[in-house]
Amino acid sequence: RQRTLAILKPDCVRKGLIGEVLRRIQDAGFTVKAMKMTRLTKQTAGGFYAVHKERPFFDELTDFMSSGPCVPVVLEKENAIEDFRALIGATNPAEAAEGTVRKEFADSVGENIVHGSDSVENGKIEAAYFFAESELVANES
Ligand code: GTP
Ligand code: MG
């Protein structure tokens, strides 16, 4: 089974949607393998989103991601990467399909409720950004 790293972003936490979003994730067949609440700093948010550092929205993105606590979660499922991105919908909620998490709950392209890894390889790197190897291995089935 594949793994993906999701983050319930600060807007998700502020809106009281942790349970609601996790419910949808679990109903879609994902198993939670690791989870915590943490707060990124502007610097650690910048490290996580380093691939976007030349983009015009980088400053706004790192301000937002460090604006409050977030909930990183390691999820497991067959085809987890692709299926999770289908579940959350397009980056911009205005373009997200009906029934997706972002369509339902997100306010804008910047504040879009949830992150999902875009490849198996990045999923491993991103999971290691938040969780110690022991926390990841301990919950293997
Ligand atoms: P993630 O799962 O968060 O990586 O989103 P994504 O893969 O759907 O989008 P992408 O990796 O291209 O962008 C990363 C994040 O940057 C997005 O989730 C948004 O929060 C933010 N972002 C992307 N485009 C814009 C933009 O035009 N304006 C702002 N403010 N934020 C943006
Ligand atoms: Mg992305």
UniProtKB/TrEMBL annotation:
It is found in: Cytoplasm. The active site is at 115 (pros-phosphohistidine intermediate). CDD domains: NDPk_I. ATP binds at residues 9, 57, 85, 91, 102, 112. It comes from the Bacteria. InterPro entries: NDK-like_dom, NDK-like_dom_sf, Nucleoside_diP_kinase, Nucleoside_diP_kinase_AS. Keywords: ATP-binding, Cytoplasm, Kinase, Magnesium, Metal-binding, Nucleotide metabolism, Nucleotide-binding, Phosphoprotein, Transferase. GO terms for molecular function: ATP binding; metal ion binding; nucleoside diphosphate kinase activity. One of its GO terms (cellular component) is cytoplasm. Residues 1-138 form the Nucleoside diphosphate kinase-like domain. GO terms for biological process: CTP biosynthetic process; GTP biosynthetic process; UTP biosynthetic process. Its cofactor is Mg(2+). Its EC number is 2.7.4.6. It catalyses: a 2'-deoxyribonucleoside 5'-diphosphate + ATP = a 2'-deoxyribonucleoside 5'-triphosphate + ADP; a ribonucleoside 5'-diphosphate + ATP = a ribonucleoside 5'-triphosphate + ADP. Its main location: cytoplasm. Gene3D superfamilies: Nucleoside diphosphate kinase-like domain. Major role in the synthesis of nucleoside triphosphates other than ATP. The ATP gamma phosphate is transferred to the NDP beta phosphate via a ping-pong mechanism, using a phosphorylated active-site intermediate. Homotetramer. Belongs to the NDK family. This is Nucleoside diphosphate kinase. It comes from Natronogracilivirga saccharolytica.
